User: What shape does this take?
Amino acid sequence: MQKLCDTTLAGGEQLYDETQPTRPRVLILGGTGEGTQLAARLSERVDLTVISSLAGRVSEPKLPKGLVRVGGFGGRDALASYLLKEKIKVVIDATHPFATRISQNAEVACSRTGLPLIALVRPPWKKVDGDQWHEVANFESAAKFLDAKMGRVFLSIGRQELGSFSECNDAWFLIRAIEEPTERLPPHHRVLLQRGPFELRDELQLLRDHSIDYVVSKNSGGSATYTKIEAARFLNLPVVMISRPFKHTVNPLETAEDVIAQLDRLI
Ligand code: NAP
Assistant: This one.
């Protein structure tokens, strides 16, 4: 049988390591800074085998330390089969607050296989003095708010949901994404390919340079992209803030310390 090694198997499956049968195997569903940091901490432990799973959305992902698998599992049934085949003992869902499908699949797969599921979810941003947030429930409501507005909009929501804004014919959009969007875009736009984290002074400059009137953001939480919210506050700009969707019914933990404590109780 092939041995596990400290490597990335793009799109491939990890094979169970028969030389380490007693080391509990932990699967981290990642794709976030929190997932990467947790993998770095747990991969130093000699009493665990840690595998990080990435969706493979970006072509050059920042790889977590330790074992990594890349690509979708093929749905909840396939995820359940993977958990059994790989003899996973605990699943940690450290995916992004807006990644709902994988979380719901993980909840179902864990319940079917009887495995514990720990959720690590960073807290949402909270409005502070000076913020002018227009909070909306989803991407469609954000687009509806902007529809028929003539302003200049900074749209920094990733690539997947850009299609929701394709009918906003009157506004001009500065669209920031890590990789070239494939969704249908609004008629008036410019695409800026950049990967965070972003410095406050750069965000201020960006908003000024493009004479932005509105910022659109998901309520992602965390520090990596918060500077655009701070920049909007400094410049007295309204932020169309998209609220978080339902992820799963698991009680979320907010810190790596809490997750590790919970993991230790379980194993
Ligand atoms: P999603 O809608 O919840 O998931 C769509 C499908 O992608 C899932 O059904 C699954 O495919 C696959 N998938 C997602 N996360 C995976 C993971 N960690 N490992 C293996 N497969 C995964 O997710 P998404 O919103 O497209 O996000 C994809 C990834 O990017 C997530 O890992 C997330 O943490 C990260 N991310 C997302 C956002 C965001 O705003 N959505 C922002 C930053 C980072 P199968 O059904 O085939 O298993």
Summary: The two ends are 26 Å apart (CA to CA). The longest helix spans residues 100-113.
